[in-house]
Amino acid sequence: MFLIANKFSNKFLVNIFFSLVFINYLTFFLIKEKTFFVFFGFFIIINFVLILLKNYNKNKLLILILLALCLISLSSPVSDWDGRSIWLFNAKIIFFEDSLNNFFSYSPYYSHPDYPIFLPVLSATMAKLIGTWNEVLPKFSHLILTIPPIILLTQNLNKKSSLFIFIVLILFVYEKRIINGEVDVLLSLYSISLIKLLSEITSKNPKYKNFYTDLILILFHFCFLTLFKMEGLALIFCIFFSFLIIYFKENKILSKKLLLIFIFSYMPILIWLLYAKNTGAAGGGIEISSAQKMMSGGQRFFENIINFKFILYLIGKIMINKQMIISLIIFVFIFSKYIKYNDGSKLIIENALLEKNMLLCYMSIISYTLIMITIMIMSEGSPFNIQIQYWQAMTASDRYFLPIHSMLLLCAMNLIESKKS
Amino acid sequence: MKNKNVPYKLLYYLFVVIIILELILIAHRSTFSINNLFNFTKESTGLEQGIKNKKIYTIISLINKNRISEFNLSNELYKSKYNQAKIHTKMFQRVVEASYPSKLNEKSKIIFTSNKSLYSKCKKIDQEENIYVFNCK
Fold first, then answer.
1. Residue A417 — pLDDT band, cuts 50, 70, 90?
2. Range of the structural domain that residue A266 is part of
3. CB of A411 within 8 A of CB of A327?
4. Do A130 and B44 touch (CB under 8 A)?
5. Is the pLDDT of residue A45 over 80?
6. Distance of alpha carbon A69 from the chain centroid
7. I need a labelling partner for A381 at 20 to 30 A (CA). Which of A89, A109, A136, A293 fits?
8. Which residues contact B120 (CB under 8 A, 6 or more apart)?
9. Contact in structure between A301 and A374 (CB atoms under 8 Å)
C-alpha cells in the first residue's frame, strides 16, 4: 500500500478522494438509494489511508498527531449539541430511512432538516460500512474530511516553525472540535486551503503541468464549502471576491475561468435548497428555511444594533476567547518582525507584508468578519435560540470565527515561508 | 552551530511534550474510553457516555428493550432550570435523537413517566429505576 501511495501525487490522491465523496453524495441525491454507500465508503477509507501513508515519511510528527486524533475520535462518543442534534441526527435519519423522500417525515425543527445533507450522507455512509448505527463511527467522517486540506496546506512547508504554527492551529485552536462532529473546523480548513490554492495558481505560469488538477481542486473546495454549512456561502463569497479585487487586473483569463467555476459551484447547494423547500413544504416540514428564520429578514438587525450593551457583549465574546487570543498573539508576533523603525523613527514595512497572497488573507478576514458580525446581530433573539439573554453571542462567537482564527495563522505561516533562510 | 542546535532540540522536545499533554486533554474532554475503540463497529457503542444523563439513558434502554415504535413523554419529565419551551429541553432532544428510529408522538398511548400516580388507571408495561412505561389505551 505504501508503494501504491508513493506512485501518485498528493493533489491527485486528494482529487480522487473528493471525487469519491462527491459522487457518493450525488448518487444518493439522484437515485435516493443507499446501496452505493458501502462501495463508495470502502474506497473513501482506502484513499484516506493512502493519503496518510504517502505523507508519513515526509511529515511524521503531523501524521502521528492525525493518527492520535483518529484513535481519540474512534474512542469517544458524540456529545456536543451541534454534532449530536444536527449533523449526526440528520445522518441517523438518512441511515434508517428507505430513501431521501422520507428524510423530512420526522424532523423536529431544531435539527435544521433543511441544512445541506452533504456531511450527514458521508456519516451515514460510514455507518453503512459496519451495517449498524452507533455514537462513535459516523462522526469519524468529519475527521476524514479534514485530512485533504491539512495535507494540501502542509505539503510544501519548508520551515519547521510554520509547521509548528499549523499544529498549534489543529490542537490548540480547533481542539476537540476537530473530532466532535461539528462542521466549523471543516469550514475553516477548507477556507484557508482555498486561499492557498488561489494564491498558488496565480503565482505559476498558466501552462504549468498541474494547472487542471489545481482547477479541479478549487472547484471541489468551492462546492464543499457551500455544501458543508450555510456560512460556507458567505465564506467563498468573501474569499473569491477578495481574490477578484486583488488579482483580476493581472490575471483576467484565469479570473474569468475561476468565475465560471465559482458560479457552477453554487449549483449543488441551490438544488438542495430548492428540493428541501419544496419537499419540506409539501410534507408540512419546512415552510420557511432555517436561515430565513434565524435572520428574520433583517428585522432584528435594527433592533439589536442600537442595543449597545449587546454590541459590547458580542465584541467581547468574539475577541476574548482562547482561540482568538492564541491566533492574535502568534499573528501579531510574526507580523511585528516585518515592521521596523529606522534611525529617523520612520516606519518601514517589508514587502512580504504586502504580497498579494497576504492581501488576499487580509481582505478575506475583514470581509468575513463584517458579514459574520452582521449575521450574529441579525440572528440574536431568533426563535431557534433558548430564550436566554444573548444566547447566540454567548455560545457561538468562538465557533463562528474559527475561519478568522485560521486565516490569521495562515498569514503567520505565509510570512514565515516567505522569509529566505 | 552546536549552540544553536541545543536550544532548538530542547524546544522541539518541549513542544512534543506539550502536544502529548494537549492530546490527553482532548481525549479527556471527548469522554475517551478505550472500550469504544474495541467496539466501534458494534451497535449503540458510546450511547451511555454520549447522553451523559441517567434518566434519559434509562428511557432509551426501555424503548429498545420493549421495541416501542412510538411513545410519548409525560410532562413532568421536561423540567428545565431555564423555563424554556419543551422542544429546547435536553430531555426532549436527547430522547428524540437517541431513540430514533422509534418516534416521539404526542398522540401515542405509550407513556414514559417518573410519577406513576399520574397514570394509575393505565397498564404498566415496564419499569427501570424510577422510570415507568404505561399503556393508556
1. very high
2. 2-418
3. no
4. no
5. yes
6. 18
7. A89
8. none
9. yes
Is residue A295 within 8 A of residue A372, CB to CB? The reply is no
pLDDT, tens only, A136-186: 999 999 999 999 999 999 998 999 999 999 999 999 999 999 999 999 999
- Please state, as a whole number, how many other Cβ atoms lie within 10 Å of the Cβ of residue A413: 25
What cell numbers appear for A358 in the block? 497576504
Q: List, as own/partner pairs, every contact residues B13-22 make where C-beta atoms lie below 8 angstroms and the sequence separation is at least 24, other chains included.
A: B15/A164, B15/A167, B16/A61, B19/A61, B19/A65, B19/A167, B19/A171, B22/A171, B22/A172, B22/A175
Label residue A282 by pLDDT band (50, 70, 90): very low
> CA–CA separation, A142 vs A42, rounded Å?
16
Each residue's pLDDT tens digit in chain B (137 positions)? 445 566 888 988 999 999 999 999 999 999 999 999 999 999 889 899 888 889 999 999 999 999 999 999 998 888 776 667 777 788 888 999 999 889 998 899 999 999 888 988 899 999 998 899 999 98
B-chain CB neighbours of A135 within 8 Å are 44-47, 49-50
Q: Which chain B residues have a beta carbon less than 8 Å from that of A73?
A: 30
The predicted pLDDT at position A304 comes to 84
Is-contact A60 A89, C-beta < 8 A?
A: no
**Helix or strand (DSSP H, E) at B131:** strand B131-135
Q: How much is the ipTM here? A: 0.91
- Nearest Cβ partner for B36 among A61, A88, A136: A136
As for how many domains chain A has, the answer is: 1
Distance from CA of B90 to the nearest CA of A (A): 10
The sign one gets for the Cα dihedral A306, A308, A313, A319 is positive
- pLDDT per position as a tens digit, A183-207: 999 999 999 999 999 999 998 776 7
- Evaluate if residue A283 carries a pLDDT over 50: no
Single-letter amino acid code for the residue at B95? V
Residue B123 forms beta bridges with which residues?
Answer: B135
Find the CB nearest A167 among B19, B33, B88.
B19
